[in-house]
């Protein structure tokens, strides 16, 4: 197994043991002896979290609000809370705060709590370095700029943090919360995604999208001329009668990856976030296809860019590119899916892609027969889900 990263690196968030403005192309990370497999990677404004196949947590990057779960900024992935004995199953990052869900579905939070986004009293916790366990059941979780949303095992949405733009979905009278509050006007939710100042929730039972928060750029699939902010969840009926693999949100754009392989995007498009022409598509769905109708194997979204893995082992990207976010070799915004050169130097397969903020990670693995004949850089195998 091999781990690669590129994009913004001003805080060492790429895990390359160096700090510079950016890395222009996918670059291999020396991860020897750190972890044997990777389950998930998430990215914040300038930090990264990695969950290995054993449920152990690692972090690197920006740490001004203790979002790494440690005292010092780190430019390589290092173990967080190694003596806890707790295994985690899911992780998430906001701008400068972090969380993890344990195997028994308890939520642990740390980092900035300036707006109550950790679900802790602001008067007592401006920030927390040590992960704090909340008495909150979390099956899935997403974090935005200053708010956090979870879905519990019942399919209920609970939310905390800043609600200035309606992103809490608790009505116009509740613009801030420092404990998790139930969002009542939604159905049974299967997927949750927080944007910069908005929240999206998908119900697999209803084949419906629920939206609330800022709609300045049509990120709620509503006309921004009519609806600037939505303080109560609105149900959006879209013509999707199939499973959703992923619901993802950038700062002001979003996408659905459908069971039939299609990608639907919407929201802001000033940097090509929608993977289409420069024309504005506020409040409308855009169907994005890879060249030659390549099938999609995985997809990830950053603050304003998208990384996509095709089934033929090619990597594609589009969107904001100021810090080489897309890895396509140009500093200009990328308005259509464009090939990302990655020189693995062997027959390695790209297994998963991860993105957030302005940076990215990919996991590659040698074909099984080759791995059986020799250890990988991380001396282990890729878990089944990768």
Automatic annotation (TrEMBL):
Superkingdom field: Eukaryota
Keyword NAD: no
RCC repeat intervals: 1-54, 55-104, 105-154, 155-205, 261-312, 313-366
RCC1-like domain: residues covered: 3-362
PROSITE patterns membership: RCC1_3
Pfam families in the record: WD40_RLD (PF25390)
Record keywords: Repeat
Protein name per Swiss-Prot or TrEMBL: (diamondback moth) hypothetical protein
InterPro entries from the UniProt entry: RCC1-like_dom (IPR058923), RCC1/BLIP-II (IPR009091), Reg_chr_condens (IPR000408), Ub_ligase/GEF_domain (IPR051210)
